[in-house]
């Protein structure tokens, strides 16, 4: 340990557990305090309204969204068989009820990125259209799919840097509008994602370097071109608010399924965190819409606890997992981000209940169990929530109440090719004793 590390450990003893790659439960000491927040409920409803304006357009250009009338939303699924399997696997009784928020089934990217990524492209398209045409807010936005608008959008570019799912959501939608769309990816990004993007007319730029060097390159290239919009996964407020809309939709799903949220009926929500943008956006929405009795817990790999480290030390994006000697390696695709976003820790300071770190083997077991018990396919990152329940109820016995609801946010998986799906499943099966 160098001197900086020693003083960090003295001040925040759990940093030592992070350094040793032991799974931890961190309870946020600032949870529930009063704080000035950078957004309000009005910002969420502004985003809700924008999604609704675009719904007829989306239903037209993405036929798979037509049966939902262009509203991109995932089901909330009761996991009764998985709950029994989970209790066996963890030798732990779960008194409340277990649910899955299946963002793995969201159209277009098959992941939670369909919320933030698509929303940011919609907002950019609307801005361009409003500035250069007579488009009115009350118009039928299907007009945006016409040649006139495609010619307009073709003058503009969209750039995003991503290891995977964000590229799919931003890339496919931006290219569909007609924007010149470029995705910056590191060499280790999955081949099938690159292929799918290219098939949709997206330019894929591959880099031989670590992903942390790809983002600055993408940002720099975008800044050189005034007609180009850069989707900034490390701090975009638009992405953030796109994710927050999930809470408005979940409120209705909870009501429809007669799930209460009040002092006697706590709702725990378990969210995998990479850069921290999607779980923070969702959590912000949940706290604004559902109030004090919904509690969010972030889940991160023991090798990449970037958001946990940032929040625990208060250093947020000014510290990375490499600074405490971790290698940043994980099989959980969407979670391999060594430094948190500029927004996540700051907004979450008083809103996040706590976080949990897990070992990769643990997510594979849950991928296989979910397949065996409920025939639901998720990617490894998306099973992270299942690893957080046991540490949470062990540390907070009041949450292991029969009135509690536990929602595992399954963040992705539906676009995986069959071969990858099978390999993940077999790996999980081999780990289940
Ligand atoms: C991106 C992603 C996450 C994490 O979202 P962040 O905004 O990076 O924290 C989790 N799971 C999956 C499947 C993802 O694609």
Automatic annotation (TrEMBL):
TM stretches of this protein: 156-179
Enzyme Commission code(s) on record: 4.3.1.18
Occurrences of domain Tryptophan synthase beta chain-like PALP (ranges): 70-389
InterPro entries found in the cross-reference section: D_Ser_am_lyase (IPR011780), Ser/Thr_Dehydratase (IPR050147), Ser/Thr_deHydtase_PyrdxlP-BS (IPR000634), TrpB-like_PALP (IPR001926), TrpB-like_PALP_sf (IPR036052)
Gene Ontology MF: a single term: pyridoxal phosphate binding
Cofactor requirement: pyridoxal 5'-phosphate
Keywords: Lyase, Membrane, Pyridoxal phosphate, Transmembrane, Transmembrane helix
Top EC class, one word: lyase
N6-(pyridoxal phosphate)lysine sites (modified residues): 113
Catalyses which reaction(s): D-serine = pyruvate + NH4(+)
Gene3D superfamilies (UniProt xref): 3.40.50.1100
GO BP field: D-serine catabolic process; isoleucine biosynthetic process
Family under the similarity heading: Belongs to the serine/threonine dehydratase family. DsdA subfamily.
UniProt-listed HAMAP family: D_Ser_dehydrat
NCBIfam families, per database record: D_Ser_am_lyase, PRK02991.1
Protein name from the UniProt record: Probable D-serine dehydratase
